[in-house]
Design brief:
Length: 333
């Protein structure tokens, strides 16, 4: 009985050892993979390792190279004899890249610019002026000075400014440049309505009081002429008009035109810095009206004084209506 127990005990022990050994083998073979949460907590976004051109065992990876040579075209020419043909030498295919196209474009533009800059077709000979009345085209072209200039170097704004500064008789100047080599200038000349003579110099004045010189003695002058014995008050002119070409206020121009209707034919008006406007009457006396204020009332007052003097048979030497409320006349100067 004892022997039987020993045998059974050893058998049980061997079975337990085998089971323990199997369990340990299974534990060793189990490979635990980390969960997605554990994998994210460790290394993240690890790029795969690529091996190029390296030998792993007997396998070799090499990059694939593309051949830069382009296929050539082959041309076969059939002859009249049956079964006979002639092969021509193959020609390479030419591909036009963006670099060659850019070079050709730049070269074409360079040749075009050289042609435009050097061709006499794009040079100006003379400017065509439209709207002149007292001036000539030669006078305008002498100021422009654009002969043999390239049309691309012309600035119409600069030419317009030069003409406005050189010719105050122009109220408007418009300069246009047309290809291949044409410059057109359109001007509007001021219309003079009176002539101002002072210190041996004659100038013309338009309705806005703008003055400009009389450049030619043969030019017809307006019938209204003012003989000035002094200059106009500068402060009055600048206060009435901010224009640099303004010679006299517009009110003074209107007063001169009103007085010219009362002046005997062929008699010029006169201007004195102290007494103002007036004239030398053909019958021998002088008359002065002062400034341009209340000119219509002063003219009516002057006619009334003349009627009174003619009725009393008085020959005055001077009549003054400079002040409306204090007119007077003198028998001696």
């Amino acid at each position: 009985m004892a022997r039987t127990r020993r045998t059974s005990g050893s058998f049980v022990d061997s079975l337990e050892k085998q089971l323990r050994t199997r369990k340990e083998g299974k534990k060793r073979k189990v490979v635990r993979t980390p969960s997605s949460r554990q994998a994210g907590y460790g290394e993240r976004n690890v790029p795969p390792v690529l091996i190029r051109g390296a030998n792993i065992g007997d396998i070799t990876w090499q990059p694939r190279s593309r051949s830069k040579t382009k296929p050539r075209r082959r041309y076969d020419v059939a002859l009249n004899m049956p079964g006979v043909e002639m092969r021509l030498p193959s020609l390479p295919q030419v591909a036009v890249g963006w670099r060659l196209a850019s070079f050709l474009l730049v070269a074409a533009l360079g040749m075009l610019l050289y042609h435009l800059w050097s061709s006499p077709q794009y040079r100006i000979q003379t400017a065509r002026v439209i709207g002149l009345q007292r001036l000539t085209s030669q006078d305008v072209n002498a100021v422009l000075n654009v002969r043999d200039e390239r049309i691309f170097a012309i600035d119409p704004g600069i030419l317009q400014k030069k003409l406005m500064q050189a010719f105050p008789e122009f109220s408007r100047v418009d300069v246009k440049v047309n290809l291949p080599g044409e410059v057109i200038v359109k001007v509007d000349e001021r219309q003079p309505i009176l002539t101002w003579r002072q210190d041996g110099r004659t100038i013309l004045v338009d309705a806005n009081g703008v003055s400009f010189p009389m450049r030619d003695d043969s030019t017809a002058v307006p019938a209204v002429v003012v003989e000035a014995h002094g200059s106009l008050p500068v402060q009055e002119v600048q206060m009435e008009s901010p224009s640099l070409d303004q010679f006299m206020p517009v009110e003074m121009v209107s007063a001169i035109l009103s007085m010219s209707a009362q002046v005997p034919a062929g008699t010029p008006l006169s201007y004195d810095p102290q007494r103002g406007l007036g004239w030398q009457d053909t019958q021998g006396w002088e008359v002065y009206f002062g400034d341009t204020r209340n000119m219509d009332m002063k003219l009516r007052l002057y006619r009334a004084i003349l009627e009174k003097l003619d009725k009393d048979d008085i020959m005055p030497a001077l009549i003054s209506v400079e002040h409306v409320h204090l007119p007077y006349y003198r028998l001696e100067r």
